[in-house]
Specification:
Elements: H1 3-7, H2 20-48, H3 52-69, E1 72-78, E2 88-91, H4 98-103, E3 109-113, H5 120-128, E4 132-134, H6 141-153, E5 158-160, E6 189-200, E7 203-204, H7 210-213, H8 221-231, E8 234-240, E9 244-245, H9 252-271
Parallel strand pairs: 1-8, 2-5, 2-6, 3-4, 3-5
Antiparallel strand pairs: 6-7, 6-8, 6-9
């Protein structure tokens, strides 16, 4: 995190040292979180792969508990009522916090780079959530396509981050179309989701504060997570746009450009207010 960025900001600094009471409340919540999640993880580990409803419900519950621990409030708008009919979801990507935010609404299988599987606790939890791991190189395109398509044909709901990385939160990066090869000229319903961090500690997020909550570049996880705890409460907006059928597009690049335009338009319209 670049603390000098905060000093350039004329707004109130939301990053404050936690008081003794703050530490006490957080540690109490953490204890409850651990007490509840250990049995959940155990049940998911032993039975989740065999009984799909158990896996799905436990995944949603775990993500909700994690957001509760970090004091994250999610506000949804748009066509979330149509999400249950969709096969594939596409979202912009700002932080590792995006995963529990999106996963707290309905059961999702996320697509992540293969390196995540080796990230200690995160890797273990990602495997438990049946994350689809892919190698990010051109030689593995067919394998990427087959893994995602297999999940979609099994009626799984899959979410991809087509930017391929996280941004600093001040803009949506260009989308890469490779992951959309799984739905190219196929009959799948796709829903774009725009994710925005709108408030930190009661203060509207502006261009100086977005890079504080974002996790991007070469940032280390532990220092960023410590800062994240001090930012609470955090408010997030999810904008669910109209779903679109992939078969309406002649190729994946046209579909990619269409989805990118929707999410960028939503994101920029909120930033301009």
């Amino acid at each position: 995190m670049d603390k000098h960025v905060i000093k350039q900001n004329s707004y109130t600094n939301p990053i404050e040292s936690l008081t003794f009471l703050d530490h006490l409340i957080f540690n109490f919540k953490l204890l409850i979180f651990i007490i509840i999640t250990i049995p959940l993880i155990s049940i998911s580990f032993f039975f989740g792969h065999f009984i799909k409803p158990i896996q799905n419900n436990l995944s949603i519950l775990f993500h909700k508990l994690l957001l509760w621990l970090l004091s994250v409030k999610v506000e949804t708008e748009g066509h979330i009522d149509r999400a249950k009919d969709c096969n594939l979801f596409v979202s912009n990507h700002i932080s590792y916090l995006d995963v529990p935010i999106l996963g707290s609404n309905f059961p999702l299988r996320f697509v992540a780079k293969s390196e995540v599987a080796s990230w200690n606790l995160f890797g273990f939890l990602a495997k438990l959530a049946r994350t689809i791991f892919i190698k990010r190189n051109r030689h593995d395109t067919i394998s990427q396509k087959n893994k995602i398509k297999k999940a979609l044909l099994l009626k799984e709901q899959v979410l991809i981050f087509p930017e391929g990385t996280t941004s600093d939160g001040n803009r949506v990066l260009g989308f890469k179309s490779s992951l959309l090869s799984a739905v190219e000229k196929e009959d799948f319903l796709i829903q774009p989701i725009t994710l925005l961090y709108s408030e930190i500690n009661g203060i509207p997020v502006n261009r100086w504060l977005r890079p504080v909550i974002a996790w991007y570049g070469d940032m280390e996880l532990q220092p960023h997570l410590s800062t994240l705890v001090s930012l609470r409460p955090i408010k997030v907006r999810l904008i669910f746009s109209d779903p679109v059928n992939s078969k309406l597009f002649s190729n994946r690049k046209d579909l990619n450009n269409f989805l990118e335009k929707i999410i960028k338009t939503n994101y920029n319209s909120v930033l301009s207010k």
